[in-house]
Design a protein that fits this description.
This protein has three helices and four strands, in the order ββαβαβα. The protein is an alpha/beta fold and 129 residues long.
């Protein structure tokens, strides 16, 4: 899933702005890609900020999510914030987590996110989700 960041369009580019004419995937099988620079893989819904990813996760329609950590403005959050939201939702609301991938180039943040994913998977198993 990695690609040359120099080739990626910026989030505020007109070609990256969703319009009502663009169809979303079926709500029962959404795949979400959180990233600020890399091109979106075919078949994935692109979001740029954690709150956008969390809003889609809250619908219960996300079956896979791939997360970058560094999104260009830490005051708006990171991919790790999404991991924390999923972990809390599993622990407190019996949320069934999607398959979670990390595509971040930030190695220390990647390790932290993977540890969170391990915790999520353990919670989900313990709760029978």
């Amino acid at each position: 899933m990695r690609c040359d960041a120099a080739q990626a369009a910026r989030p505020d580019s007109p070609e990256n702005v969703a319009t009502s004419a663009e169809p979303l995937p079926a709500l029962s099988s959404m795949r979400v890609y959180l990233d600020d620079e890399r091109p979106t893989p075919p078949g994935w819904v692109r979001v740029f900020w954690p709150d956008e990813a969390i809003a889609l996760l809250a619908t219960g329609a996300v079956v896979e999510i791939s997360l970058d950590h560094d999104l260009g403005d830490d005051s708006r959050g990171t991919g790790y914030d999404v991991v924390l939201w999923i972990e809390e939702a599993v622990a407190l609301r019996a949320f069934k987590p999607p398959r979670i991938f990390v595509h971040s180039a930030n190695s220390s943040a990647r390790q932290k996110m993977l540890a969170g994913i391990d915790a999520i998977e353990g919670l989900a198993r313990a709760k029978g989700l």
